[in-house]
């Protein structure tokens, strides 16, 4: 094994993160305006995905659809901008259609963020987005240097099975605006 990887794994375990971060929850793509359906058809052609949910994010001029394989996680989420100035379209113009983030389900997001901040991990927002009352709390890390995708930490409450709430999605998408422009 690579020495740097072993060192990091030990650190993570010692910090308690292996008990707090549970599994991959969803993989989120951002694709070119007008190519959302094509992207989903392309994936459905390779894997027997079924359509799950579609959301329109009016204020961000974007539409997000989710597909899933049987009843298993991770869900695949595909977003496309509906106008040139949409944060999604700006991102795709800069980086191409690609995976934007991998979201991991955690069982105590406050703790995860507290530990990771202490370890020097940076996030796109100062605070966690959402609340227990809304059924979901989430936060994005800055993109990785090597593959330029974000890691999302997500915690769900009650029977909430979505990927964001109408208020959350605006904040979340807005939080990556700077990255699209960078
Ligand atoms: Fe997400």
From TrEMBL:
Domain VOC: 23-156
InterPro entries referenced in this protein's UniProt entry, alphabetically: Glyas_Bleomycin-R_OHBP_Dase, VOC_core
Name listed for the protein in its UniProt record: VOC domain-containing protein
Pfam families: Glyoxalase_4 (PF13669)
Database matches in Gene3D superfamilies: 2,3-Dihydroxybiphenyl 1,2-Dioxygenase, domain 1
